[in-house]
């Protein structure tokens, strides 16, 4: 009843009972995973050196067969052996051990004494895709820091390994940047809409650099990488409200946007604007050690450049044939800046909607449809598949009259998410450390125009995020009906973690 389904699982007779004291043996290099497991089993549980034992050890010779994230788990009545080629695999094995506990044990503070046991099993497991993520939009509606911590913990439970934080947009700037105090003093606040949809204000909030560094450390200890996104050159009204000189109308004071949609106010292309973006990316890179930094790049109307003499001159000097070519040029400047610092730029894939090509070194998030993702791979890019018709969790989950409001334009059902195959059409998977084009993985998007509170965000995320985790790790090796047989008891785990998920459908096939 594990989600995502392990590659190979054999049930064995008996159970391993976790006693009042924990006998835990951590081999060389396994201490972080062992400490995490001990914490899940109750941080105040005393240690012992006798009795049934839980052993963790690294076996690099298994790298070829299991990869960096795979693991082997053997549970017998008197011993548990967790083995992996690399530390990340151990962390994934710890999450399997976490799911094998009775659901009541997911909250050690309230777990009854008889909840501490594991069924005897033999598991050999590895993921299908390297990038298994969730985008959480904290710009449209600010989410409290403790919710980000809870989200990380839930991602780890499902072996999802990327939290993509959408930190800036027209409606809010949520990250503290040294040297640019007005980004949060002004850009983090708007007069409306408020968290409950009302017209009042001010509404907003932001995270300090220290808070985000601590979140990054918490996530890393659970095998989750936090990837920041700083939108540019569009979706920047909050930045322009703070510093009008960055825009194409530098003498016009704009408020932080209080509407949804696409604002025509975008960054100018002057040198001082490029310097601002580089400084912001440098400061962001100091907070987030992830190899990838997302620079946005989507939905950038160029009307403001058409009316800006400086933008027209720059486009002409660059031989771009018009200001629309400045979009790819702008993003390329940021790619080059990050590459020189050993980082990698990511951008939303705007194939067919913006002239000019981005360097192949830019990893693309393909949000329009799978065909755009396949075309990006053909151009030499690494791609995270994120088509809105199958991975946007802000769309309603059903057409029921009592379904909460969501993004207009259709529904994304649980079965739709489960049916999506990021490698359809013969695409091949690739690794983040590789230079080869291909599919890095898949990612769900939780935009928050219609999710003003953590509770609403949870409702939209679950159980659809469980289906995405299944496909990202396991692929569609079983049908939807079999997935539901595991998802029904899995909801007990979600409830133990404080998640009120949407009701489940009845399988039709």
TrEMBL record:
Entry keyword Signal: no
Reaction catalyzed: Hydrolysis of terminal non-reducing N-acetyl-D-hexosamine residues in N-acetyl-beta-D-hexosaminides
Domain of life the protein comes from: Bacteria
A biological process term (GO) from this entry: glycosaminoglycan metabolic process
EC number: 3.2.1.52
Residues forming the catalytic site: 299 (proton donor)
Any one annotated GO CC term: membrane
Similarity field: Belongs to the glycosyl hydrolase 20 family.
PANTHER family: BETA-HEXOSAMINIDASE (PTHR22600), BETA-N-ACETYLHEXOSAMINIDASE (PTHR22600:SF57)
Descriptive protein name: beta-N-acetylhexosaminidase
Protein source organism: Streptacidiphilus jiangxiensis
